[in-house]
Amino acid sequence: MKKIFISYSSRNQRLVEAFTKFLQLGMGMNKSDIFCTAYPDMLETGYSFIEKIRKNLQECETVISIITEEYLESAFCLVEMGAAWAMSKHYFPLVTVPYDRLNKTPLMGMQMRKLISIDDLSVIYDELHRCGVLVEYQTADFHKQAKDYVKQAKKIVEGGYQIEKDEEGYYETEISCVRKVAQKQFRCYGIKGHIADPPDGENAKSDWLFYRIDQFPSLEAGDRVRFKTSKSKINVFPDLGRARNIYPDDLTKLD
């Protein structure tokens, strides 16, 4: 039986991967004691993933919810949150949103901790020991890994991380915002992260997809996209500073 169940939105995959790595390197958890669908081998091919998730949520001693805006927008995640609360598990809601965003959820009035706070992570570390999930302390490793994790997690939440190409040369990321442009025949979208190996070869404060309205689909903040590009250009704007315009060769909106 797994010891910890990680409840999260699939749109926060990168953040959760960083957190589960910290659980192992910083807190000493064994991967075999963690149920998290961010691990590719956690759900068997051809089996009902919903039943597997339900069974592990029911059996795990401890549930950790990674509560982001995306989490609160997911009906599936809110069901997991309510189930963990109702089953009186050892429950750790870790948030990246203001606490008052939980006022209309089962967690209203419950003590929560910040996902990106060394002080709060230290409290969680001690509490996991007290409830028997962790056995031995590794204080030096915890503090070293906590600093690295918080630095990385802040970049992920703020969209400052690097997006690598896949084997086919495509990038995959999320739309962070829509920007109005003077030329009505064009669309402009901010993306989370910075593309690795940009064609322009320069550094930018932010990356933006830029294309004609008849080229690719209309997008909204929160949409996930997969794109390939062979052309980009750095521009300097009064409100953005150095911004990279990315001109896609191909772009698909993901479900």
Describe the structure.
The protein has helices at residues 13-25, 49-59, 69-72, 75-86, 118-130, 139-158, and strands at residues 4-7, 34-35, 62-67, 90-95, 113-114, 162-163, 171-179, 186-191, 194-195, 206-212, 224-237, 241-254. It is α/β, with parallel strands linked by helices and 255 residues long. Strands 2-1-3-4-5 form a 5-stranded parallel sheet, with helices on both faces. A 5-stranded mixed beta barrel has the order 7-8-10-12-11. Strands 6-9 form a two-stranded parallel ribbon. A hairpin with a 3-residue loop joins β11 and β12. The mean pLDDT is 91.
Count of helical segments?
Answer: 6
Question: In percent, how much strand structure appears in the residues?
Answer: 25-35%
Instruction: Report the helical percentage.
Output: 25-40%
Q: Major sheet: size, sense and barrel closure?
A: 5 strands, parallel
Q: Which residues form runs of ≥5 with pLDDT under 50?
A: none
N/C terminus separation? 32 Å
Shape: elongated
> Going across the major beta sheet, what is the strand order?
2-1-3-4-5
CATH class of the largest domain: Alpha Beta
Kindly report the name of the CATH homologous superfamily of the largest domain.
Answer: Toll/interleukin-1 receptor homology (TIR) domain
Organism: Drancourtella massiliensis
InterPro entries: TIR_dom, Toll_tir_struct_dom_sf
Keywords: Receptor
Protein name: Toll/interleukin-1 receptor domain-containing protein
